Amino acid sequence: MKTKKAVFVTSRVHPGESNASWVMKGFLDVLIADSEYSNLLREMFVFKIIPMLNPDGVIVGNYRCSLSGRDLNRNYKSTLEGQFPTIGNIISMVKKLLTKLEVVMYCDFHSHSRKHNAFFYGCKKRGRKERKLVQEKVFPYLLAKNTPDHVSCCGSTIGEKRGFHFNTRDYELLGVSFLHTLLDYVNLDKFQGAMVKSSTPDDILYFQDLG
């Protein structure tokens, strides 16, 4: 247990973003499968997964809000835990696990109403060490390399998918690719480290010990 790393994955904080559930399905199908690959993932990580953070909003057909009429994604700092129980509980869960294990990833699956392809939003908190901010760019970069037909940092249409909408299978494959990339991320070898360095020339000093 002590040698494992923890990964948090959540989805559907916004009820109307149903595409996120298909990504979660692809993620879970691989994770719970009876295969050597899936066993390896479960041996390496402790997964904490909440497939639907806003079930009440989903049931009543809201697009962004909960039953309280509030956007849960804007209330992670709220002290009104009674109004946002799922948010309060996920925060408590993260804090509790941090006392036991290293949490290497927290990812919340969303869908976007205007932007194309798959992309990441990160949290750029003021006062954080620059090296930490750069490290957080590694996973999105590796995922983009693993899924060149889907993932883009710029949100534009790309490659053979230009002009087409993703179908449910595309979303499921994104969830699968997320798990593949997770293994790459925690086992970054010298070749991958060099690849990341070469792609971010302004950040080379911060990647000096990768691999």
Automatic annotation (TrEMBL):
One of its GO terms (biological process) is proteolysis. It holds the Pfam family Peptidase_M14. The keyword Flavoprotein does not apply. The keyword Transmembrane does not apply. InterPro entries: Cytosolic_carboxypeptidase, Peptidase_M14. Signal peptide: none annotated. One of its GO terms (molecular function) is zinc ion binding. Keywords: Carboxypeptidase, Hydrolase, Protease. Its cofactor is Zn(2+). Belongs to the peptidase M14 family. This is Cytosolic carboxypeptidase 3 isoform X7. It comes from Octopus vulgaris (Common octopus). The lineage of its organism: Eukaryota, Metazoa, Spiralia, Lophotrochozoa, Mollusca.
